[in-house]
Design goal:
This protein is an all-alpha fold. It has a domain at 513-607: Alpha Horseshoe (Serine Threonine Protein Phosphatase 5, Tetratricopeptide repeat), CATH 1.25.40.10. The chain is built from 32 helices and two strands. Strand 1 (21-27) and strand 2 form a beta hairpin. The longest helix is centred in the first third of the chain and has 24 residues, at 55-78.
Length: 608
């Protein structure tokens, strides 16, 4: 049975992915990382904001109290300076207190005094680190370059750090290798070498180094780096294991939990992210991103009410277009489309004027819900305005916003503008080669459905469909558009009498048989054409039970009655054939082409 569905049945969430950071070096606070690629409820939201607290905020207050204590200790030591000014240990301790207070220049002066009193390399290491903190890279390079690079691991790693900051990765590799020659098991060296290997796309080398680092020290940075490496070689199972270990070490590490949540979403295993996210938001309640990820995981795990609660907490932190869009999505999933539409409209009103994505996403979602509510005229008008403003058809290449074109074409068909929908669909397939694969596949599947009832257009329909089959590899396995194209091509080939070819397409979507009404009906048609009337009828009747609404049931039943009419004529049962054909030929039946065929057969029977 030919299938015509909306491209993506659900509205879409907006959740900003966690920043993917590969840690090259971590020494205290000095971390070098590379960034890789309605009113009642509004009142409730505003009340929630007062109860939020943040572990970072609490930490900041504790830091202020700690600074007072450090200042007190510093002043007491300064009272003793006259007695201990010639002590390198005393000067080093004063420098340490200045560093803790953020007084880097004062700390530097004390360290220089200490270095003049002692030959300890650690004092020069700290002077170099302070040069880096003050942005004096040349001075830092000169200092570390003068140290004994044949024996000093720290100096080599600092030189590697400076090279990496300036994107001189080859120089950084040389310095790190020199450090590892001195101490092959050094944690910092192995962590750094692994990160550099990852930057140079040497993933196996990166994994080896991160594992060697972890043998020396259990570290969140090493585990998250290892997880990123496993993601790059498509081993999500191992990436999940590494991230779980990172979170076991630091349950409130936002980077590790964020990566776990995003990976779980991509792998459709959102349930495993819920626990870590819930623990994180217990202590970090002012992070929009954490609430958004928790809501996404809950929503995709079927816990829709809890997802709405999480989104309300997110909105209590800051009201934004994104959070109200996501509240609309949650209410859409709950089946409350009227409320969903209210939220999408509110999201549109909050979207920043310069942020096209923030404006278009709630528009796309609102059009989607309007179509699902059969409000096709309103959906058509809204989509038409977006398309009118898209002068270069740039949106056709966007995987999400290209849906607006598909919704527009669907609305045209449902409002009696079928010819215009066909014309525009063919135009995009021909003139916009960079249109998103999902859009191209959906357009082709619908054109096959439109032409698949006219024998004189069969060859054109087949060509239009088959030329887009190669795009299917770019879509997810469970994408409804993959299923539509395979099913409609199979139906078309059955109507053309090319049953073996049709069977090949059906075999690619065999898991949808007994699950999806249209696939089940198409298999039923194949059985009819092969003379297996009883099996074909049984599959069609199963498809009728699977059909989600009356419109789909009427379409499937009309085609079944036509095929049963043909089959009974072949058996010589004219009375039963006439009864089935009369059912297919009723004026209120949904598919006019089937109605016309049934009428022609009835006329032939009348004449004979």
């Amino acid at each position: 049975m030919l299938e015509q569905k909306l491209p993506v049945a659900n509205s879409r969430l907006e959740v900003e992915p966690a920043q993917v950071r590969v840690i090259l070096s971590e020494e205290g606070n000095d971390v070098l990382s590379a960034i890789m690629l309605p009113l009642e409820e509004l009142r409730e939201i505003s009340m929630l904001s007062a109860s939020n607290f943040s572990i970072k905020q609490v930490s900041d207050h504790n830091q202020a109290r700690l600074c007072d204590r450090i200042r007190h200790d510093l002043n007491r030591l300064l009272e003793k300076e006259e007695r201990f000014s010639a002590s390198a240990t005393f000067q080093s301790h004063l420098a340490e207190l200045h560093e803790m207070l953020g007084e880097i220049e004062s700390a530097q002066s004390r360290l220089v005094l200490a270095a003049n009193l002692s030959t300890s390399p650690s004092l020069r290491h700290r002077i170099g680190a302070n040069f880096i903190a003050m942005g004096k890279q040349e001075e830092a390079l000169a200092l570390f370059g003068q140290l004994d690079l044949g024996t000093d691991v720290h100096a080599n790693l600092r030189l590697a750090y400076l090279s990496a900051r300036n994107n001189r990765l080859d120089d950084a590799v040389v310095a790190v290798e020199r450090a590892l020659n001195i101490s092959p098991t050094d944690f910092g060296g192995r962590l750094f070498r692994g990160a550099l290997a990852l930057a140079k796309q040497e993933v196996p080398r990166a994994i080896l180094n991160f594992k060697l680092a972890l043998e020396e020290r259990q570290s969140v940075a090493a585990y998250t780096n290892l997880a990123i490496s496993y993601v790059l070689i498509r081993r999500p199972d191992k990436a999940f294991t590494a991230l779980r270990k990172a979170i076991a070490l630091e349950p409130y590490n936002e980077h590790a939990v964020g990566l776990l949540a995003d990976l779980a979403f991509l792998e459709k295993r959102n349930d495993i992210a819920i626990g870590p996210l819930e623990r994180l938001v217990e202590f970090e309640q002012k992070s929009e991103g954490n609430w958004a990820r928790l809501a996404r995981a809950l929503l995709d795990s079927g816990q829709k009410r809890k997802a709405v609660d999480a989104l309300k907490r997110q909105a209590s932190v800051r009201e934004s277009s994104a959070v109200f869009n996501n509240l609309g999505v949650a209410h859409d999933r709950l089946g409350d489309r009227k409320k969903a539409m209210q939220y999408f409209r509110h999201a549109m009103s909050l979207a920043p004027s310069g942020n096209v994505d923030a404006i278009l996403l709630p528009i796309r979602n609102l059009i989607c819900v309007l179509c699902a509510e059969n409000e096709y005229r309103t959906a058509r008008a809204m989509a038409a305005q977006v398309i009118k403003d898209d002068h270069e058809r740039a949106l056709t290449s966007n995987p999400v916003f290209s849906d607006i074109y598909a919704f527009y074409f669907a609305a045209l068909v449902r409002t009696g503008e079928r010819k215009e929908a066909i014309r525009l669909s063919k135009e995009i397939l021909k003139e916009v080669p960079k249109a998103a694969s999902g859009l191209r596949v959906w357009l082709a599947a619908n054109l096959v459905a439109e032409y698949g009832m006219f024998p004189e257009r069969f060859e054109e329909a087949l060509k239009l469909g088959q030329q887009e089959v190669d795009k299917l590899t770019q879509l997810e396995q469970n994408d409804v558009r993959r299923h539509m194209l395979y099913n409609n091509l199979a139906f078309l080939l059955i109507e053309m009498g090319r049953l073996d070819e049709a069977q090949q397409y059906l075999s690619r979507i065999s898991r949808y048989v007994h699950v999806d009404p249209y696939t089940t009906a198409t298999l039923g048609l194949l059985n009819f054409k092969r003379g297996h009337m009883d099996k074909g009828q049984a599959l069609y009747e199963e498809a009728l039970r699977l059909a989600p609404n009356a419109h789909d049931r009427r379409r499937i039943a009309q085609k079944m009655n036509l095929e049963l009419g043909y089959a009974m004529l072949d058996r010589g049962d004219t009375s039963q054939a006439r009864r089935r054909l009369m059912m297919a030929a009723k004026e209120n039946e949904p598919i006019p082409q089937i109605r016309d065929r049934a009428k022609e057969m009835l006329m032939t029977l009348k004449k004979s």
